[in-house]
């Protein structure tokens, strides 16, 4: 039964990941903790494996279409990877109920961000013929990279819900390129987070393989066929689902533990 649940939930998360550029990963840890009855110390590394693998496969169509801004991805990874290790270290010091409450707060922020209008872009960082304007972009990209990395290590989330708004609204990157860039950043941060969490933690590899396998398939299919889906409507329903799950996580953290 547990294996079947892992297969089903993995597929759903993979599809959301491929369609939304990372937002679906916010549900991985709650699924592992509440549906598959794991502790946070097990759920976080498995979530990072699933999110990283699905993001890597979902990024392939974007790489082929050259829809990745590699320089900004490099900035996010360079700042995010050290912050990931810091987040992992902090997480080891916190009780599970506190981690769950913090995770619920992140989910609420992710849902609110998903509901926000993404139809416009901010001031572009690139200038014609001269590449990235780092004086304009660095003060925005570096703090965002640190925040995403820290959350990845602390909660096992990919951070696409934060990366994409920063790329689109603050840095002026087109949505199609922002999604591809987000997936690349998630892969780098997830790999670093996994390394920081694996020592002393036992991983159920059968559940991980089932979860990751269907997530990868779902992410790839969504990446290829996502243009046929009304993503604006999907984002709204996804946000409401995230709010509902966050409410349950808060109830569990404060009243059931």
UniProtKB/TrEMBL annotation:
InterPro entries: TM_pro_TauE-like, TSUP/Inactive_protease-like
Keywords: Cell membrane, Membrane, Transmembrane, Transmembrane helix
Keyword Metal-binding set for record: no
Signal peptide: none
UniProt subcellular location: Cell membrane; Membrane
Transmembrane segments: 44-60, 72-92, 144-171, 177-198, 205-225, 237-256
Domain of life: Bacteria
Family as reported in the entry's similarity comment: Belongs to the 4-toluene sulfonate uptake permease (TSUP) (TC 2.A.102) family.
Alphabetized PANTHER family for the sequence: MEMBRANE TRANSPORTER PROTEIN MJ0441-RELATED (PTHR43701), MEMBRANE TRANSPORTER PROTEIN YJNA-RELATED (PTHR43701:SF2)
Protein name, UniProt field: Probable membrane transporter protein
């Amino acid at each position: 039964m547990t294996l079947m649940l892992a297969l089903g939930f993995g597929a759903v998360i993979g599809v959301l990941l491929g369609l939304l550029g990372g937002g679906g990963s916010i549900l991985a840890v709650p699924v592992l903790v509440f549906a598959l009855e794991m502790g946070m110390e097990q759920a976080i590394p498995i979530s990072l494996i699933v999110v990283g693998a699905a993001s890597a496969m979902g990024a392939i169509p974007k790489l082929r279409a050259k829809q990745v801004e590699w320089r900004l991805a490099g900035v996010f990874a360079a700042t995010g990877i050290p912050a990931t290790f810091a987040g992992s270290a902090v997480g080891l010091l916190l009780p599970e109920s506190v981690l769950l409450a913090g995770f619920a707060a992140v989910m609420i922020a992710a849902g609110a961000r998903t509901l926000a209008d993404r139809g416009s872009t901010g001031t572009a960082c690139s200038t014609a013929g001269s590449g990235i304007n780092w004086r304009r972009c660095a003060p925005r990209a570096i703090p965002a990279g640190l925040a995403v990395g820290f959350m990845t290590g602390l909660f096992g989330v990919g951070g696409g819900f934060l990366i994409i708004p920063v790329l689109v609204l603050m840095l002026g990157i087109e949505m199609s390129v922002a999604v591809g860039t987000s997936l690349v950043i998630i892969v780098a941060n997830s790999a670093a987070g996994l390394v920081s969490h694996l020592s002393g933690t036992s991983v159920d590899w059968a559940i991980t393989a089932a979860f990751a396998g269907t997530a990868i398939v779902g992410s790839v299919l969504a990446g290829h066929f996502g243009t046929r889906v009304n993503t604006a409507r999907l984002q709204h329903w996804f946000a409401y689902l995230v709010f509902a799950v966050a409410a349950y996580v808060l109830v569990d953290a404060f009243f059931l533990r």
